[in-house]
Amino acid sequence: MLLVNNVVKEYSKGVKANDQISLSVNPGEIFGLLGPNGAGKTTLVSQIIGSMKPSSGTITIDGVDIVSNPQQARKLCTMQPQSQVSIEGLTPKQAIELAGRMRKGDRHKVAQRTDYLLKELNIEPWANKMATNLSGGIKRLVIFCMTVVVPGKLVILDEPTNDIDPVRRRLLWNQIRLLAENGVAVLIVTHNVIESEQFIDRLAIISEGEVLASGTPSQLKRDLEGNLRLQLVIQPEHSIPPIPDFANITMHSGARVFLSIPQAFVSEAVQWVEHLRLTNEIEEYTLSPITLEDAYFKWIKPQEKMENQEVTDNVV
């Protein structure tokens, strides 16, 4: 469905926002672009939807050359942008139905699907309220509905779960999965590592305009096989204790310290953290399998880790 081959986007003075990016998104697949702010994700999407032309490389959607025919991208894909779209003066129901008719959807079918989406995302109580009275999360869900009421063959969702409460976030992911099951190719732009591991089929980790790694979440974690994740919560006014030679700090965020522990040293690790707990140096600890987050922080640079510490706070 979507094929991106060796795409380069170079600005003045040789600055490359994208550098030899190649990826594919298949029909029926949820594919994620995962990376920190400024990684080049938005620039790549702008080229996919035909609003920006690459310096070199090719982009095709359903066999159509989007670089030569950018207007075709708007017919073949629908997109939910990261920023809120203004729907002032409309109710959610009106906005969604209008979007469907603009996509040349059948009026009756658009009305039916609008009612279905409002119900499935549990936003029916706001269906006929003016947009000025809606919260940011409800508006975000309405924009999603406008994007998928008549979906393109490729649906692009830029940070679709921003501002959405945990319950409706799950409902949203159910609808995204149903899109894929109905043959739509779904491209998700995100920096939420936890959601990426739970809901995305394949992904590419992008940093500084380059694809650093790509594959399924399991494939991306493969390099860390044989290790476990150890999380420490340091007591207030205590510093990080000396770390044993067998452990490696993968991330430090506030009072939390994340370490990678070889499975062969689990017994030693438990003895060490139990000693820290008994001496009141840590509040608690958790030992668990390696996550996609651990693989993600293996790839990005230290300064980017600081930008992405918030991902550990995003609980689905």
TrEMBL record:
Entries under InterPro entries matching the protein: AAA+_ATPase, ABC_transporter-like_ATP-bd, ABC_transporter_ATP-binding, P-loop_NTPase
Ribosomal protein as UniProt keyword: no
GO molecular function: ATP binding; ATP hydrolysis activity
SUPFAM superfamilies membership: P-loop containing nucleoside triphosphate hydrolases
Pfam families associated with the record: ABC_tran
Ranges of residues in domain ABC transporter: 2-233
PROSITE patterns referenced in this protein's UniProt entry, alphabetically: ABC_TRANSPORTER_2 (PS50893)
Signal peptide (residue range): none
Keyword Transport part of the UniProt annotation: yes
Keywords: ATP-binding, Nucleotide-binding, Transport
PANTHER family: ABC TRANSPORTER ATP-BINDING PROTEIN, DOXORUBICIN RESISTANCE ATP-BINDING PROTEIN DRRA
Identification of the protein by name: ABC transporter domain-containing protein
